[in-house]
Amino acid sequence: MQKTLMTPKNLSKNDAMPRLRLLSILLLFMLLFSICDVVAQKRKKPSTPASQAKEFLNTQFWLGIRGGTNFTQTTLIESFSGLNPINYSADNLDKEYENFVNPAFHIGLDLTFYHKGFSIMSFPTFFRNNINYSSQLSWSGESERDRYETSYDVQQSITFLELPLAVKYDIIGDRIRPFVMAGAFYSIAFDANKEVQIFETDYASGEPVEFDRANIKLNNREEILNNWGVLGGLGVSFDFWNIRSIIDVQYRHSFQSIVNSETRFDENTFSSFGEVQDDYSLQNYSASLSFVFPLRYIDSQFKAL
């Protein structure tokens, strides 16, 4: 049998064959991978400007102004009077509050962070509350002419700097979006003014004679405390170009008296005529209109959809 001698030249050729096969397999896999990737890219739905805009606006910041009107309802906690009854019940000195008769106004900013239907919003607002109440005192003797009546008509206006924080949810819609919202607020007493009209009726002549005793208008900021509570509301927003208009109605409920008990009986013009503040909390119904603008842009074709 003839034996073949393995020379270095033969060894080199034998080692090169497996390497060539491995390289060929790797090139084949790379070619197949490239073909699959091209096919996948062709099947993928191309991105359009409209879809890009929609995806972009899933997260947005809005900033604008808001204003509107509101009505205040008072909830009496405890009643007080500047006079001490002697021969009649103290209940006769209670005040009668009028609700929803004197509208007030509010104006402020609208700050909103929106993400896929949910919004975290704040609307710092100068919020004015109008409160009306009246009371009546009477003195009577043995005869019909021994009678004297005094009535008080009070208008109290209070302006708060309100700092609310709320969560809003857009229920449905694209260009027109109804929504619901809920949150809380803290209000800083900014200003307060009080007007007291005092009328008296004298029966000494046999016929009632009416006359104005006093008309007092003074600032009484020191009688008012800061306020806090919860709020809830609903509304709708709609878009025109890059401006979003929002209409909403809200209810606010406070949990404490806004009257400073430490200054209730301080010597002042009001207390000298027998008029002092009750303890009461506020409930408020408001309607507002906001105009807000988006703070994020890509280019001019991406409008607030």
Explain this structure.
This protein is of the alpha+beta class and 305 residues long. The protein has one domain (71-294). The chain contains 3 helices and 11 strands; from the N terminus they run ααββββββββββαβ. The protein has helices spanning 8-43, 49-56, 269-272; strands at residues 59-78, 96-98, 104-115, 118-122, 125-140, 147-170, 176-202, 209-219, 227-240, 243-254, 279-294. Strands 1, 2, 3, 4, 5, 6, 7, 8, 9, 10 and 11 form an 11-stranded antiparallel beta sheet that branches. The longest helix is centred in the first third of the chain and has 36 residues, at 8-43. Residues 1-14 and 37-42 have low confidence and may be disordered.
Fold blueprint:
Blueprint: H1 8-43, H2 49-56, E1 59-78, E2 96-98, E3 104-115, E4 118-122, E5 125-140, E6 147-170, E7 176-202, E8 209-219, E9 227-240, E10 243-254, H3 269-272, E11 279-294
Antiparallel strand pairs: 1-3, 1-11, 2-5, 3-4, 3-5, 4-6, 5-6, 6-7, 7-8, 7-9, 9-10, 10-11
Outline of this structure?
The chain has 305 residues and is α+β, with helices and mostly antiparallel strands. The chain contains three helices and eleven strands; from the N terminus they run H-H-E-E-E-E-E-E-E-E-E-E-H-E.
